[in-house]
Amino acid sequence: MIKKFLQDKEKKVLANNYLSLLVLQAANYLLPLLILPFLVRVLGTDKFGLVMFAQSLAVFLTVFVDFGFNLSGTREISLARDDKNKLSEIFNAIMIVKLLLIVVAFGILCIIVNVFTRFSIDKNVYLLSFGIVIGQALFPVWFFQGIEKMKFVTIVNISAKLIFTLLVFILIRSESDYIYVPVYNSLGFIIAGLLGFILCFKYVNLTLPRYSLVKRLVYESSSLFVSNFATTLYTSSNVFILGLFTGNTIVGVYSSMEKLILAVKNVYAPLYQAMYPWLSKQTDQIKVMNIKKMAPFVLASGILITAIILIFGKFILNIIYDDKLINSYIAIFNILSFIAIFSGLNMLYNALYLPAIKKYKLRMNIMIVGGVVNLLVSLYLVKLYGIYGTAISVTFTEFLLLLLGYQYFKKNSKF
């Protein structure tokens, strides 16, 4: 009877966290999707592309500052959740490292915008976009995932993002207002980050962590950092490379479609994030059993989404953007649609299963292979085929990562 109660309680917590993460993820992608058509129309594809290009650079710096703590931090917090002193020490250790990395990241950004002409022309756009990095670093999603209390932090995050959304709709009126987009975007992230950070002190105290703990956490997260950075090479680097070889207008066209695909891709993320703390504590056999049960449903949903895009893609783009230039690149949207199939399964094996069995280095190696392959293929294909080369390289990389993740799972899932 007690065992059944505990199991029901665990399922209830898991369901609540999944719903909270689903709402949080929806806010992170649906709110920007509401803004995208508005920004494309008001700013034009050229200035919209510039803003997206600056955001892609901010994503690289965000990954650097996160340093893999989104996974390792969640696991550490989950294991120490019943010991407030230990919980406080881990939280403070991670935040100290993140704050130091913010300083380093800003230094890197200053060098980039002052040395390279491509960035110095619109220096202010890149500097103002750095607020995204600060906000993401302060916002401790990993902490609330670890203690499995996502409800309040979800409300806080959505409220802050709504501020950005409203400011854009109310105050952006012409192409010359493009400079305010990164300001409002950064403002939303920073407010969310500060409020989330303050909420943590309901569960932890300010303490000075042991140097040995900081050193261990940095060492254990280093492989996750490398794998996350490699992941960024096959996500944000595509916009970055395309921008270097083409121009802001083509970046704007590609970004308008990529944002839609990313929203689809990240449908799976809340489920995997909610399951991760729970799955980490299960036996290897239960972990494998759950992954096997989930795979057919993830595959079926991916196929359905891809089919919808292939059939109704032009209609979807026309309804959302109503832009002749974007509609003329419908083939890009069709190529990217296959990511819905590949990414869900790729994330199931590489973003849920491997971290849950603490195979951080293996995950790192897989992500490095994917990141390097994508970088090389993208550099080659973009030179030859422009925007089409970008779409082909990112879709191929998702497929490659799926194959690598599944190969390891299949080899090690037989008991």
From TrEMBL:
The chain crosses the membrane at residues 21-42, 48-69, 90-119, 125-145, 152-172, 184-205, 297-317, 329-352, 364-381, 387-409. Keywords: Cell membrane, Membrane, Transmembrane, Transmembrane helix. The keyword ATP-binding does not apply. It comes from the Bacteria. One of its GO terms (cellular component) is plasma membrane. It is a multi-pass membrane protein. It is found in: Cell membrane. InterPro entries: Poly_Biosynth_Transport, Polysacc_synth. Its main location: membrane. Pfam families: Polysacc_synt (PF01943). This is PST family polysaccharide transporter. It comes from Winogradskyella eximia.
